Amino acid sequence: MLPGGAFQLEVIRLKLKPVFIYSLTERMTASLKLSIRADEEEVYTEEYDIDLLAYDQWLGKSILPEMLSAFVMPNLPELVPILKSTASILGKWTDSSALNDYQSQNPDRVKKQMAALYAVIKEKKNTYCSVPASFGGAGQRVRLVDTVLATGMGNCLEMSLLYASCLEAIGLHPILVLIKGHAFVGAWLVDDTFPDAVNDDPSLLTKRTASGINEMLLIEATAMNEGQSPSFDDAIQLAVNHFADLSAFEYFIDVHRSRFSGIRPMPLRRKIGEEWQMIDHENSVDEKPEISNPAALEQSIKLNHVKEINFGKQQLWERKLLDLSLRNNLLNLRISKTSLQFIPVPPNELEDAMAGGDEFQILARPRDWDNPLRNAGVYQSLNSQDPMLQLVRQELKQKRLRVYVSEEDLYAGLTGLYRSARQALEENGANTLYLAIGLLRWYETPSSERPRFAPILLMPVEIIRKSVKKGFIIRSREEDTVLNITLLEKLRQDYGLALSGLDPLPRDENGVDVKLIFNIIRQTIMSMPRWDVEEQIFLGTFSFSKFIMWNDIHSNADKLKEHPIVAGLINGSLKEPLDYIREENLDHKYGYGDLLLPINADATQLQAISAATAGNSFVLHGPPGTGKSQTITNIIANALYRGKRVLFVAEKMAALSVVQSRLAAIGLAPFCLELHSNKAKKSEVLAQLQKTMEIVRKQAPDSFKSEADRLNQLREVLNEYVEVLHQKQAHGYSLYDLFNEYVQYPEAKDDIPLSAEELSTLDREKWHQWIDTAEELQIAAGLCGDASERNPLYGLEPGEYSSQQKEKIRQELGLFIGTREKLNQILQQVTHMLQWPDGSWTGGQLQKFSELIDGILQLPEIPESFFQTEHLSDFEEALLPLINAGEQRLLRVDDSTKTYLYSLKKGHVVSKGYPIRKSDFGIYEGIEYESHGLFKVLQSKYGYINKQGRVVITPSFDRTRISKSGLIQLRKDHKDGHFTYQYADTTGRFLSDAVYDFKEGMGDDYPYYFQIGQYLVISHYDASVQKNFIGLMDQTGKVIVKPNYTKVLPSKNGNGFMVERFDRWGLLDEAGELILPTVLDNIYAAPSYPRTEMDIQYPVLCEIKGMYFYVTSSGVILPFIINGIESHGIFW
């Protein structure tokens, strides 16, 4: 080791003298010396005091409490006679004397082995000697098993160790239980162990020792001492009684599990001469040899694990109405004035008796009995040997039940329960008084310290007060005992525990099988620490906010199924489809006066009103702002008009208020009784009824019928036109269909005249022939190339084509080529003479040049000074007004000039006074002033020039238009039915290089809007899903909302955007960033005019799957406070 360095010593195994260690009979003090040497020189030394304990000393729970397992010594030779006697007794009780541990896989066989062993040790008549009060914590010296057998003396711990040693010798897995000042013993009835050797959770034992679970058995070890007479079953009950006071429980040790931790049985020591010698009997017991018979164990239940339980529609409706908060006493039972706890009696016996029709008198606790567990929350069971509990069990046979409270508190509690139950039954028609049989002790989280208690079974009961002397009695309402489905739903939703085997509830001879139900629940919660079933009984009122609705569905299931709509909802289909009147048949079905429509309604709304009048059931669906509340108002008004009563129920208060205000606006407020909830004040209801009674019944005016008849006649005349317009002709189309087709081709020319005779003989077959011919012509034209006037062969219509004609055409073309070459030479001379730049001439330029030459030739004599001016620009500026005046005069008098300047749409001259050069007119087929100083020009395609005649947008687009803000949409049509478009400004600059596309006929019209508010519409057609996806960009060309949505609605106040994708809505902020993805069913924002914009006001109300919540502009769901409790923000 270097100077100043460090050196780590490995674990040093001290060489101890075993003979000295196991020869110690008393505690002694020794020292441990640490010495460091360097080159045989001692450089450092230190001594530490240590305590050496006696061979048989146990340290308790302070240091490795599981070391108590070392005192379980199954290999002692002194155990052989005990095991042989055990086998002998077992042979008398059963057909076999074999001590075959768990090989039979029968818990009852294991119990009989334990009982036989109990009988043998009991016959030893070992004398009991006391134990130190704090031995479980500080430990003690322990008499070893051989010493107990040799001296015939042992305390509770030593007798437990003796019994545990014999159990392990048989092959069973012992359990040692330590409580304050006491110890007792038990064993597994199945071949199993706990995950840990030491546990301090008593529920791990109580759940496994419960009757019907049959996984473990505990006995009172001191019952085997001399002077004790309990049978084996009595010893079991004595051990169970120790769990009445859980505060005394400390821990238990799984001996078999501790063996896996390396804790072996202590070696046996023998004194030979003056020295102690250790004898390690690896297996001193060479064989396992083969007095009242104990009671048989109840049959264990085996549950199949279920991941999910499928519910019917009705059960699903019921569960959605449940209250899963801790305010509900069905999940969090608290001792209060609305509940009474009975001193425990066997719950299965009580349920069977009450199901059989027995009545029970309720008595207070005896005056001479003071309940020490009064303030402990839910009372725990007391020692079953307590004389008071024996009294209670005896009184059960006499049809009497006792509670923990005094006589005065009992009278007050029962009176309150009696009155509240009667009031609930009278006002709501639902019973809320139940006998809660069994409680589930559960914890919200693994770290929760406060237990919660939830009723398991609820038996409907009623309180009868027969006389003051006899007091109150309870009896069953002759209704089925039900499982606490609120608890089941809580376990399923919050803890993933799905209980099987409880639908329907298992039954026995009288009512339900309480024990089996408890054990099913115990099996389900077996892995939940500290959870257990408490076999307690309470009387109380159990309800929650939607209890009445739940009770109606639960209690009237058969009646509900009689309604065809409800039956269809439950079964998933209607037996008979509902008959609705089509829109076109409404006029024939209903005349004026048959339906009352105080608010205007369109055809679809009228269809809904007529369906409601006919008694049909339906869903009225539509996005915000489409008139649903108006339609509902008309439905209610029309029902009142027909003398019917209407119950209008809505999930949201806002919906009720809107319809109520509309009814009030049309004068129907006195006929509306506003009962929004059970919180409505009685005075307000009475005031509404008074207003209704003050209404004087009036007869309809005589003129009403005559006016209705007049309107019906006028409607019949109009309907005749409608019928003719929509009547199908022989060719399969109506006039209305043809109009719709015709308007789709606004640029088509009327070049195909049809005679009346041709139209009269046109049928479907001839129509299809025409269509086929047109398609063939279109294909042939495509093969021939461009068939427009720009085609060099346009205008040639030879009747036939031959080789002579071909040769003649070649000669003519040769002459034309020669003439053209001469023309080119002349053009070069002219351009050189006029000092024009050299270059090739296009057809348009040649036409323009030809017109220029014609114009020059037609000019009168021009003064030579015109051509000799030195300042041409000044001269042009002075001459320009004269030219304009001359052009205006020319346009007025020269009809031939008008062929160059005309409107594309209206056929009249348009110049707006701009000085367009006359020479520009001849280039274009058409020209029209549009806006922002731009002329729309046609040169096969559309483009724009400015007022100086300069080209701004090259004519290469099929459709163009300019917005009020001066932005141009340029569109190109494609043969497959879609078009592409771009945006440019008035200078001809494209806002973006991106080209957007849109497919017509998909039910979208967004690109026709061109501009929504301050944004330009952009789109993209996705052929894979056959959808147009929409986005928006600003007027600088920056994309704000990418084209990923089927609808984009900006907020007019700049608060962002509502977006839709596949019928689901979402929210974006003003920069187009995501606030909420498109998962919402609805967003409640007011529409503005036009309906391409919305008025989004944050926080905004959103809906998804029937749940509602408010969202801020940053996407945060707002919590709110109800009755002083903060909710997470979602409500129904």
What does this structure look like?
Helix 2 crosses helix 3, helix 10 runs antiparallel to helix 16 and helix 21 packs across helix 22. It is elongated, with a radius of gyration of 51 Å. Strand 24 and strand 25 form a beta hairpin. The strands form 13 sheets. Strands 14, 15, 16, 17, 18, 19, 20 and 21 form an eight-stranded mixed beta sheet that branches. A five-stranded antiparallel beta sheet has the order 9-11-7-8-10, with helices on both faces. A four-stranded antiparallel beta sheet has the order 22-23-24-25, with no helix packed on it. Among the domains are: 223 residues, no CATH class; 236 residues, no CATH class; 113 residues, no CATH class. The longest helix is centred in the C-terminal third of the chain and has 31 residues. It has 1132 residues and is an alpha+beta fold.
Terminal CA distance reads 75 Å
Report on the biggest sheet.
8 strands, mixed
Roughly what fraction of the amino acids lie in strands? Answer: 15-25%
Task: Please report the number of helical segments.
Answer: 33
Radius of gyration based on Cα positions: 51 Å
**Regions with pLDDT < 50 over 5+ consecutive residues?**
283-290, 371-385, 890-920
The SS-based structural class is alpha+beta
Net shape: elongated
How many distinct beta strands? 44
Mean pLDDT: 80
- The percent range for helix content is 25-40%
Which terms summarize this structure?
eight-stranded mixed beta sheet; five-stranded antiparallel beta sheet
Topology:
Layout: H1 18-21, E1 28-38, E2 41-52, E3 57-58, H2 80-93, H3 107-123, E4 127-128, H4 135-138, E5 140-141, H5 145-151, E6 153-154, H6 156-170, E7 174-179, E8 182-188, E9 198-199, H7 203-209, E10 216-219, H8 232-241, E11 249-254, H9 255-259, E12 268-272, E13 275-279, H10 313-320, E14 339-341, H11 347-355, E15 360-363, H12 387-397, E16 400-402, H13 407-428, E17 433-442, E18 452-467, E19 471-476, E20 482-483, H14 485-495, H15 514-524, E21 532-541, H16 547-555, H17 557-561, H18 564-571, H19 586-589, H20 603-613, H21 628-641, H22 653-665, H23 682-693, H24 703-726, H25 735-742, H26 756-760, H27 764-784, H28 803-833, H29 843-858, H30 865-868, H31 872-893, H32 918-921, E22 926-931, E23 934-939, E24 941-946, E25 951-957, E26 959-962, E27 967-973, E28 978-985, E29 996-999, H33 1006-1009, E30 1011-1012, E31 1015-1022, E32 1027-1033, E33 1039-1045, E34 1047-1050, E35 1057-1061, E36 1064-1068, E37 1074-1080, E38 1082-1084, E39 1086-1087, E40 1094-1095, E41 1100-1104, E42 1107-1111, E43 1120-1122, E44 1125-1127
Parallel strand pairs: 4-6, 15-16
Antiparallel strand pairs: 1-2, 3-5, 7-8, 7-11, 8-10, 9-11, 12-13, 14-21, 15-19, 17-18, 17-21, 18-19, 18-20, 22-23, 23-24, 24-25, 26-27, 27-28, 28-29, 30-31, 31-32, 32-33, 34-35, 35-36, 36-37, 38-41, 39-40, 41-42, 43-44
Helix pairs in contact: 2-3, 10-16, 20-21, 21-22
Organism: Arachidicoccus ginsenosidivorans
Pfam family, one: AAA_11
Domain DNA2/NAM7 helicase helicase: 602-679
